[in-house]
Amino acid sequence: MGDAVIGQEMIQLASGREVPSVGLGLWKIEQESTAQVVVDAIECGYRHFDSACDYGNEVQTGEGLTAALSKGSVNREDLWITSKLWNTYHRKEHVRPALEKSLKDLQVDYLDLYLVHFPIAQKHVPIETRYPPGWFTDPDVEHPIVEADRVPIIETWRAMEELVKAGLVKEIGVCNFGCSLLRDLLNQADVPPAMLQIEMHPYLTQEKLTRFCHESNIGVTAFSPLGAQSYFQLNMAEASESLLENELIKGIASQHQRSPAQVLLRWGVQRGTAVVPKTCNLERLKENIAIHDFELTNEEMSSIAGLNRNRRFNDPGDFCEPAFNTFFPIYE
Question: pTM, whole model, 2 decimals?
Answer without folding.
Answer: 0.97
